[in-house]
């Protein structure tokens, strides 16, 4: 049958990173150089039905992005991968189960800061896969004077909203940073983004 002749993929893990759900693995020890991999997934809605993923068939890389393949973001899924080379293949190796809605890990947003005469206009863009655009992603924004620990917090701003901050009373160097947030069972947060600093109302 030519089965079980190739070393099986190792460290098969379903993980979330930066809004994506990704299956990763490492080549089995002693794998030939020309080996390719094929991935399938199974959802807890339909156990024992392993579904093909066309874009992760006979691939050379050691990861497969499942995010926009998932039929339901509120159901646990797992994936499996096998190695193929010529007429030889390895056994399938399965990951653990994960659910996008509960297990998704967020990335910090990228801040867009527009300085006007007496105000700051701040918006955040998120590196989101298109299939999860409709989720109620939010962000929290911090504003502080450079060098100060005293931060003004703007919490739970819907992703597409711009925040307008009145800067009439602010003078000097001010910094902004934001984190993505998302309500699943409780609030999840990303790390805060790298601060963006702007000079407000310079004298003269």
UniProtKB/TrEMBL annotation:
Residues 6-103 form the Fibronectin type-III domain. GO terms for cellular component: plasma membrane. One of its GO terms (molecular function) is cytokine receptor activity. PROSITE patterns: FN3 (PS50853). InterPro entries: FN3_dom, FN3_sf, Ig-like_fold, Interferon/interleukin_rcp_dom, Type-II_Cytokine-TF_Rcpt. This is INLR1 protein. The gene is Ifnlr1. CDD domains: FN3.
């Amino acid at each position: 049958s030519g089965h079980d002749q190739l070393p099986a993929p190792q460290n098969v893990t379903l993980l979330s990173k930066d809004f994506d759900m990704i299956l990763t693995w490492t080549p089995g020890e002693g794998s030939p150089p020309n080996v390719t991999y094929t991935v399938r997934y199974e959802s807890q809605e339909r156990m024992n039905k392993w579904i093909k993923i066309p874009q992760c068939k006979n691939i050379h890389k050691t990861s497969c992005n499942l995010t926009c393949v998932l039929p339901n973001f509120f159901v646990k899924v797992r994936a499996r991968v096998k190695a193929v080379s010529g007429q030889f293949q390895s056994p399938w190796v399965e990951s653990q189960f994960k659910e996008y809605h509960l297990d998704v890990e967020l990335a910090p947003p990228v801040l867009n800061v527009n300085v006007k005469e007496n105000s700051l206009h701040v918006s955040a863009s998120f590196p989101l896969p298109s299939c999860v655009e409709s989720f109620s992603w939010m962000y929290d924004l911090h504003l502080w004077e450079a060098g100060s620990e005293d931060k003004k917090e703007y919490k739970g701003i819907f992703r597409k909203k711009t925040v307008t901050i009145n800067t009439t009373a602010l003078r000097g160097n001010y910094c902004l940073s934001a984190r993505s947030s998302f309500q699943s069972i409780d609030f999840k947060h990303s790390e805060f983004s790298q601060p963006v600093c702007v000079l407000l109302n310079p004298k003269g």
